[in-house]
Design brief:
The chain has 4 helices and 27 strands. By secondary structure, it is an alpha+beta fold. The longest helix is centred in the last third of the chain and has 21 residues.
Length: about 425
């Protein structure tokens, strides 16, 4: 998966307009240790040089530290990594090596700055002589960070318009007898809707009775408004008769967990959506009939939300409203380079061309800019055909070739 910083670095490399680099690590601490997998002899002495890394390169080292192993079978160390680093490397040479300088070997430094050396042989590699650890969240000599992020966001929006958007699903919690609801995010259109797993017609306001409170199983929803502050607001008829269930986590979750444990999963409807903190997830099963239980088969990060760790006691909310459709990409601000880019894989080439065209406009290279934009327009228009729904109606017994726009109706909000 591409990171937000990847198209930024691709454009800066083509301009060329390199950003700043990260500084090397600081404050190294290295000490003898006794570790279960340690195999170093007690008389070992060492020389260690430490660098920082990120997805775009590696810093130069902070220099050489040396010492001896006394009372242990390994070395443990820590270092302060610069902001924007995802880890580092500790290059080392030990007594008895062919040369008394650096061996072509290293061990990896974790994102928290810790590492250990447990054997005489590490991974092959030398400390770099030039700092290539670029920081996409800094200015270049010609293009500012703010401007290149604007180009990134504009390009993603234009591609979404041309290609039809990112196919996704979302959910909203219900409140009994409440008619209006807001769907967060930047959506182009919705193709299907369900209330408590019952299919709902995506209609218009002519089907909604606003005068009286009528609640039950919802049959129709209609779009009311769309704003940046409120997302997509819709109304329902009848009004929901149920309020979405809530519970709390009884154990922490990692960003990759596919199961959660909670106080009570029994009110949740299987094969639906839930929200934990700011993350929306799909789930397949609940295995409780009351009391402590689990929610299984989680698909993380729906509706453009980011998979994240969640703490014990976090609220888990059922989303009885379920919608599927097509949305725009997220918008990014400087500082987002290490986030996963919210785009379909086929969009990356078009995005790079759009951003490079903006560079050429800024350079006043008009003909090059126009040629890039023409190619971008053609490529983006072709994306709609290439990103057709991978699961078509024909595969389940229908006669049409594509199922993305087939259903009981749509809310059109573009």
């Amino acid at each position: 998966m591409a990171l937000v910083g990847d198209p930024i670095m691709a454009v800066r490399a083509s301009a060329p307009d390199p950003p700043a680099v990260l500084n090397p690590p600081t404050s190294p601490i290295i000490a003898p240790a006794t570790l279960p997998n340690g195999t170093l002899p007690l008389t070992t002495t060492f020389q260690i040089s430490i660098t920082a890394i990120n997805p775009w390169g590696e810093t130069t080292s902070i220099g050489t530290a040396s010492g001896s192993l006394v009372g242990g079978n390994a070395f443990s160390g820590s270092v302060t990594l610069p902001p924007g680093a995802t880890g580092g490397r500790a290059y080392y040479a030990l007594t008895g090596s062919v040369n008394n300088g650096f061996e072509p070997q290293y061990v990896s430094i974790a994102a928290n700055g810790t590492f250990s050396i447990v054997s005489l042989v590490g991974s092959a590699g030398y400390p770099p002589q030039q700092n290539s650890c670029w920081n996409p969240d800094t200015d270049g000599g010609f293009i500012s960070t703010a401007l290149i992020y604007k180009w990134l966001n504009d390009g993603l929006t234009f591609i979404a318009e041309a290609a039809g958007g990112i196919e996704d699903t979302t959910g909203v919690a219900t409140i009994a007898q409440q008619i209006y609801y807001s769907i967060p995010g930047r959506w182009i259109r919705f193709n299907t809707a369900r209330y408590d797993q019952w299919p709902v017609v995506l209609g218009d306001r002519d089907y909604i009775i606003y005068r009286y409170n009528v609640n039950g199983v919802v049959s129709v929803v209609a779009a009311e408004m769309q704003t940046a502050a409120n997302g997509t607001v819709f109304s329902s008829f009848p009004e929901p008769s149920l309020t979405s269930a809530t519970t709390t986590l009884t154990a922490p979750m990692t960003a990759t967990s596919v199961q959660l444990s909670c106080v009570d999963a029994s009110p949740f409807t299987p094969m639906s959506r839930i929200q934990v903190d700011n993350e929306i997830m799909l789930f397949s099963q609940v295995n409780a009939s009351g009391g402590p239980g689990f929610v299984n088969g989680l698909i993380r990060g729906a509706a453009g939300t980011t998979p994240a760790a969640h703490s014990t006691g976090a609220t888990v909310q059922e989303l009885k409203w379920n919608f599927s459709g097509f949305r725009y990409s997220q918008l990014y601000a400087p500082g987002s380079a290490l986030l996963t880019l919210d785009a379909r894989n086929t969009w990356e080439v078009a995005l790079n061309e759009y951003m490079l065209a903006q560079v050429k406009h800024k350079e006043q290279s008009t003909q090059e800019a126009l040629a890039l934009m023409q190619h971008f327009d053609a490529f983006a228009a072709d994306l709609r055909k290439k990103q057709a729904n991978p699961i078509t109606v024909a595969q389940i017994g229908g006669t049409l070739t594509q199922g993305r726009d087939v259903g009981r109706g749509r809310i059109i909000i573009q």
